[in-house]
Amino acid sequence: MLEFIKDIPQNQIRNVALKLPPVTHGFRRGQPPELQQRVRQFVAGIRRWTDKEWDLFQEIWLLWIRCNPELDAVLAQYDNAADFEGEALTPANSSLDIGCFDLLIQASQEWKVSRETIQRFYTFGYFLTDERIEQTIRQARPQADFQLLRELTVLNNQVQQIVDCQ
After folding, report:
1. What is the pLDDT of residues 64-117, one digit of tens each?
2. Which helix (H) or strand (E) is 129 found in, with range?
3. Of 3, 27, 121, 133, which is least surrounded by CB within 10 A?
4. b/e burial code for range 86-100 (CB count within 10 A of at least 16 → b)
């Protein structure tokens, strides 16, 4: 979970970390090392989390999504309002949740979101373990493919500049 939180820029996670209990010994209060220790202690206490801590983790999860603008843009297009209508709670992994992953895979095929980002969204989200979702995620393009495309694009641009100069 710490790796997930480390994906969030320091200046973004700071506001959340300040809501956690301060570290009492060995750190200057409010400084980055102390805030990092607050987050480590928060994560270490996961088995004892109350609703308040789970609400704070939800805030972290939403912050992580906003720090992944490509993912955030795809999710903003998806209408899952029906999961929140009425009095009854809709269980995790509803048909709308499954549909969301289908949309994410489509976005991955369009070079917008990597498999690793989708996997983290699934792993640290509210979803239950589900073979259907995991099979769907395996269809997404890996981050290595995104890196290769970036490198090929740069190479193509360099070749084009050489051709244009001749």
Report:
1. 999 999 999 999 999 877 766 767 667 788 888 899 999 999 999 999 999 999
2. none
3. 3
4. eeeeeeebeeebeeb
Q: What contacts 24+ positions apart, CB below 8 Å, involve 51-57?
A: 56/16, 56/19, 56/20
Tell me the C-alpha distance between 22 and 56, whole Å: 15
**pLDDT reported for residue 17:** 92
Mean pLDDT of the chain: 90
Residue type present at position 40? R
Task: Compute the CA torsion angle 104, 105, 106, 109 (nearest 10 deg).
Answer: 120
Two tokens, residue 34:
């102390």
The token duo for 19 is: 């809501």
In 10 A of CB 13, how many CB atoms? 22
| Confidence (pTM) | 0.78
Residue 117, judged by CB atoms within 10 A of its CB (0-12, 13-18, 19+), counts as buried
d(CA 65, CA 67): 5
pLDDT of 84 reads 66
